[in-house]
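thoughts on my protein:
***
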Amino acid sequence: MISKFGETERLSKKTQSVIENIIMILESSGYCGDIYCGYPIINENGRKDFLKAIILLKSGIYLLYENDIEEKVFSNSLIYYLAQDSSLVDITLNFKEYVKLLNTSTELSLETFEGNDILSDETLLKVNRAIQQSFNLTKTDDREISSEATLGSLIKKRNNYIGKYDETQFNMVHSTIDSHQRIRGLAGSGKTILMLKKMAYLHFQEPDLKIAFVFYTTSLRSSMIKMFTDFYKDYDRYNEPNFENIKIFHSWGGKGSRGFYSDICEQTDSEYLNYGEAIGKADGEDPFEFVCKNLHEELKKQLDYKGTYDFIFIDEAQDFGINFFHLALKTLKRNVNTGFLIYAYDELQSLRAQVSIPSKVDIFGESTSCKDINLDTSYRAPKEILTTAHAIGLGVYRDVDDSSETPLVNFVDETTLLDMGYKNIGQDFKAGNRIVLERINESNTGIEIDAPIHVSKRVDQNKIVAEEIIRLLREEDVKASDIMLIDMDGNNLTRNYNQFSKSFDSLLFNTELDKNIHIKLVSGKTPSMTKSETAIIYTTVFRAKGNEANLVYLINCNKIQTSNRNSTYRNDFRTDEIKNVPLNVFQYDVGYVKQLTGVYPEQIVDLKAIVGDTSDNIPGVKGVSDKTAIPLLQKYGNVENIYEEIETVDGKMLAASWKEIGIKRNPIDLFKKQKDICYLSKKLATIKRDIEIEEDLEDLAVNIDYLKLSSIIDEYEFKSLNEFL
């Protein structure tokens, strides 16, 4: 089979016919290989040419051209690409031996391509990657390696392996946009990079077009702009992109940071609402969806508004609701060859409580066409991590109501599973049957997945992780920029960061490593995710989303189910396994405690701090019942976080937020007046566990003479107790 990369529509009809003939000759004779065509090449004089074709076979490299000028330009360009890989020096030095030049006017036949196999599979992969280096899916990893056995060596090999586009990726970038496009891409499939590359290619071809690139995660902006600029320079290294016509920004925007919504408000002289204003008016509706709906309605009234953008690219589209899509469509210009929306998504990475992305019909209506592009191969995530994440995302571990038809949060059919890169190797795909899913394309990455490390104190966790990072930097050819730390305790991010950074710095001080290496906090106050050779990123799971790193550490994982984002998690990792516990069995595990009380075991002290406990003379906050306390603890995790919110958030905004979780009577004043009592109550409810005990457990063991005990029980007529002996 011949894999075709690129398109031929910008080539002459004659050349298109020659290329089609070449593919037919090769495929009818059972040849396997790759053909590249239509790629733009800029001459030194700034003139734009389009590559006719490069054919890669084991019998050699074949370069198609139309005239003598192209022969020289294309040959020099190919030599330049190949020279980027030092292991291909033999081809560059003996160019005529390996590369055959084909004129489109020459009659071509099977004999043209026959001959001895002079290129191995490995060499062909390298040639592919060298040619595609200009397409810049990823940069060549040029780190210095001390040993082939190091983790850094494995990372380098992996990074350079994924430097080759697959056919779907390549053609997604270089195909003509003649309709709306919906791109489903798994984590690690390259969808963000490909979207930016596609936009760069479009801007290169048509620099006067107005194009917007919209993303959800605020920390991405600087890295997105840098990637786009680099990608554009791959097509035109003599000029800069025109950022008057290119807008790359966050979906909302605000003070000091231009966004899609704020920009349209300014252009159309429409009312702009910030987050606080929006949440106050939204009456429980998602604030961003609320402002998008309002602006969309306003634009419909402005009869002279004809749109702002020729194309809009949307990344991480699963995090947006239907009102945003309708607003985006309204801002598109309606022309013959423009006015299209290109959006990439993966519903299994959604940050929204609502899992499903709006359908094409909901967005565009029945009559509007939207092309589907599917990226089903993950090039970065090891298979073990990917399948685990998908199992969680689909709701495989979710507690299911008896009335539920399916345990899956987002029900899928076999076609959808194939689109996600899975095949069913179990029973028929029918309700009630056991299906077994297996990845289709991913091969073994060579990366081993370590078991979680359990520690009793945060200080121990920090020390263990910091020591491991130092070891990797010293012994494993790992760079600081390879590493990202994701703190699952987002409520205490700054405090946790300071503690970890202090632990890391003290260890770094006693090494020969570069003292400029540091832990970089990415938060609301410092949102830039731009990487440097000396920075190890420290952030939350929400700000990490859409970014990538070769090594990721998740810390403070005990906080996953006590965070204030609890409502967005689709699976309870601490599943309620015990449903019907016999009355005489006291198995109070995590799930059973949660079932009985509404909170997790570690939150019991916080529950008593709020509602009190008369049996233990714990006063609690008078006037606040468990109906209020439980939703607050489910949202904030503990008393400290509740008071932090009370003291830092506007009262009206906070009341509106609490109303969303079912708290109708506003208890803010009760909390404020009884703060000292609440903290005292928590202290009274907390069992002191740090007492020094000199005895060993063996010394405290009790040896019971059950025969003697039984006789005593009989003597005092405690007959029922004998049932438990």
